[in-house]
């Protein structure tokens, strides 16, 4: 005699969508995921709650707790990033997945930078892509509750951490691949903080890292993905014609010159840079760009060392 299957955990999904057709597609996909062959892929039983407007969603979030939120940013009573910024404070620990069309990807990516978990294209709205997204979001929620999630911000510099860089970088590369736009990864390694030791003692290193964060925020745009990757190494991912991009050395020099008289009172920081450029495809991995940029960084580091030794 077969033993009964264990009861599946129920998870509450809030769908915020004004378009009844798209809401129906989500419901159909969730219904299909209840079939036996998808149980291992998505072990939770998803209960869907539908809010047609932002106003309805805010009321629901104030009254009840949800495990995940599927959010269309363009609603009948709210549009674009404003929608996400209204929902986020009431989401508690529930991860937010943005539902969007291909033409709205830039806005969805901006929401991810503001704290949304991910986004899902409506053109790809089928049971399997939805299942993978829901599973990833639910696993992230469990990690948050268990306080096992790695921070997406670097506490010292307030830049994105390496984990946040990987998350946003991969999504940005997918977007660049769809638009066939080149991607350039800059690596910046801080090398000059030891010159601050005499003036600032043991705090010199932290001070230099904080100033490097300020430098990168100044010379890159909000649309670029800028992070402290590890230790003294920072990264920035840009999506422009590489021939039109200013070199990293020029960016740093321009920033240092902007400090003006301040530099007369203390030693200037110094850096070694590396970069890699490619036109991403659907299968491009961020690790490939990191490896190429790290190789260029190591080469430039070696050249600087050889020059210093005469």
What key phrases describe this protein's structure?
single chain; 310 residues; alpha/beta; Rossmann fold; Alpha-Beta Plaits; 5-stranded parallel sheet; 4-stranded antiparallel sheet
Structure description:
The longest helix is centred in the last third of the chain and has 23 residues. The chain has 310 residues and is an alpha/beta fold. Helix content is 43%, strand content 18%. It contains ten helices and nine strands. It folds into two domains: 136 residues, Response regulator (Rossmann fold, 3-Layer(aba) Sandwich), CATH 3.40.50; 147 residues, Reverse transcriptase/Diguanylate cyclase domain (Alpha-Beta Plaits, 2-Layer Sandwich), CATH 3.30.70.270. Helix 3 runs parallel beside helix 4 and helix 8 packs across helix 9. The N terminus is likely disordered. It starts with 9 loop residues before the first strand and ends with a helix.
Task: Produce the secondary structure layout.
Elements lengths: L9 E7 L3 H14 L11 E7 L2 H10 L4 E5 L7 H8 L8 E5 L4 H10 L3 E4 L5 H19 L16 H18 L3 E8 L6 H4 L3 H16 L5 E6 L2 E6 L9 H11 L12 E8 L7 H23 L2
Parallel strand pairs: 1-2, 1-3, 3-4, 4-5
Antiparallel strand pairs: 6-8, 6-9, 7-8
Report a brief summary of the structure.
Helices cover 43% and strands 18% of the residues.
N-to-C CA distance: 82 Å
The CATH topology of the largest domain is given as Alpha-Beta Plaits
Strand order of the largest sheet: 2-1-3-4-5
Note the run of SSEs as H and E.
EHEHEHEHEHHEHHEEHEH
Indicate the low-confidence ranges by residue numbers: 1-7
Mean pLDDT: 83
Tally of separate helices: 10
**Helix/sheet category:** alpha/beta
Largest sheet: 5 strands, parallel
CATH superfamily assignment of the largest domain? Answer: Reverse transcriptase/Diguanylate cyclase domain
What is the count of structural domains? 2
What's the alpha carbon Rg, rounded to whole Å? 23 Å
Q: Report the strand count.
A: 9
User: What portion of residues belong to β-strands?
Assistant: 15-25%
| Global shape | elongated
- The CATH architecture of the largest domain: 2-Layer Sandwich
Helix content: 40-55%
CATH structural class of the largest domain: Alpha Beta
């Amino acid at each position: 005699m077969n033993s009964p299957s264990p009861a599946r955990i129920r998870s509450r999904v809030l769908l915020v969508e004004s378009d009844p057709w798209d809401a129906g597609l989500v419901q159909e996909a969730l219904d299909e995921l209840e079939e036996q062959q998808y149980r291992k892929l998505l072990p939770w039983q998803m209960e869907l709650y539908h809010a047609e407007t932002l106003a309805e969603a805010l009321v629901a979030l104030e009254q009840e707790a949800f495990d995940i939120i599927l959010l269309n940013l363009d609603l009948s009573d709210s549009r674009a990033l404003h929608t996400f910024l209204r929902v986020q404070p009431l989401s508690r620990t529930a991860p937010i997945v943005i539902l969007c069309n291909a033409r709205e990807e830039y806005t969805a990516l901006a929401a991810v930078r503001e704290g949304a978990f991910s986004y899902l294209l409506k053109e790809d709205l089928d049971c399997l892509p939805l299942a993978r997204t829901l599973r990833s979001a639910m696993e992230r929620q469990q990690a948050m509750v268990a306080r096992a999630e790695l921070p997406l911000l670097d506490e010292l510099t307030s830049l994105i951490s390496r984990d946040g860089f990987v998350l946003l970088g991969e999504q940005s590369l997918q977007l660049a691949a769809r638009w066939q736009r080149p991607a350039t990864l800059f690596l910046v390694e801080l090398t000059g903080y030891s010159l601050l030791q005499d003036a600032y003692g043991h705090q010199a290193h932290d001070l230099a890292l904080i100033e490097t964060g300020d430098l990168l925020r100044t010379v890159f745009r909000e649309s670029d993905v800028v992070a402290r990757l590890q230790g003294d190494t920072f990264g920035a991912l840009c999506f422009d014609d590489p021939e039109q991009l200013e070199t990293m050395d020029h960016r740093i020099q321009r920033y240092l010159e902007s400090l003006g008289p301040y530099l007369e009172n203390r030693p200037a920081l110094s850096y070694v840079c590396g970069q890699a450029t490619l036109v991403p495809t659907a299968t491009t991995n961020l690790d490939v760009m990191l490896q190429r940029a790290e190789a260029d960084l190591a080469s430039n580091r070696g050249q600087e060392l050889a020059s210093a030794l005469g």
